[in-house]
Design goal:
This protein has 235 residues and is an all-alpha fold. The protein contains 8 helices and 2 strands. The radius of gyration is 23 Å and the shape is globular. It starts with 9 loop residues before the first helix and ends with a helix.
């Protein structure tokens, strides 16, 4: 009779594979058939929130991949929404929320946010502002924000100067949630704008999260939806 295998400890397991990269098959193999998933670790809410923010940031920037300067800026709807402008806007608001809010102002001046700046100047890039400049700015904002997130506890208190006085006081936790929502909202805008530009779709690099189907399947699918909409509209 063979001796029972020693159950892997969380520390030992984590040294083998990061938890967020493991599949259930990985867990079963590593745990050697034990009925308890020793790979479970203590919850870390700040790390979870930060990961969701980083994922949303990368998804937004990815929507610019492979586009010309023209297509990156094309206003595809009547209100002018465009891909590079979305990145510029999200970079600008993140700089404020994780900067000035917590007494850690972003060190670069963003002139499109100055008092008296043109309305919506943060929602589009001028011909002189290249994609590399805007994306580079966004990545520097990430670094500044990440330093704030790393330095502060979730219950750290800040003040959002541009919010109404009665709800101006916030915590890092609330701002993380706010920026996850803000970034994902605009990443969703970018999904639609990019599809309008050249038909490219997908959740993020390496994961399109789309139903399997070739062009003919998608054309049939869209036609079916159009018929259903017309039938509903004429009922």
């Amino acid at each position: 009779m063979t001796a029972a295998a020693e159950a892997p400890t969380p520390t030992r397991w984590l040294s083998i594979v990061p938890a967020n990269e493991a599949s259930w098959d990985d867990l079963a193999a590593i745990c050697g058939g034990w009925g308890i998933l020793w790979a479970m670790t203590e919850p870390d809410p700040k790390a979870d929130l930060h990961r969701y923010l980083r994922t949303a940031r990368e998804a937004l920037v990815w929507k610019l991949e492979g586009l010309s300067e023209y297509d990156a800026r094309r206003p595809m709807v009547p209100t002018g929404t465009n891909l590079l402008g979305l990145v510029k806007h999200v970079a600008s608001v993140e700089a404020g929320y994780f900067g000035e809010t917590f007494g850690r102002p972003f060190p670069e001046r963003l002139p499109w946010l100055d008092e008296g700046a043109e309305v919506n100047a943060d929602m589009w890039a001028t011909a002189e502002e290249s994609r590399e400049q805007i994306v580079g700015l966004y990545r520097r904002v990430w670094a500044h924000s990440d330093a704030t997130i790393d330095a502060l506890a979730l219950d750290a208190v800040g003040q959002v100067p541009w919010w109404p006085r009665e709800r101006r006081e916030v915590t890092l936790h609330r701002i993380l949630v706010h920026m996850i929502a803000e970034t994902n909202r605009h990443a969703g805008h970018a999904d639609i704008v990019r599809e309008l530009v050249d038909g490219a779709v997908g959740l993020r690099e390496g994961n399109d999260n789309m139903a399997p189907g070739d062009q003919a399947w998608w054309e049939r699918y869209r036609s079916r939806l159009e018929r259903a909409a017309r039938e509903a509209g004429s009922a």
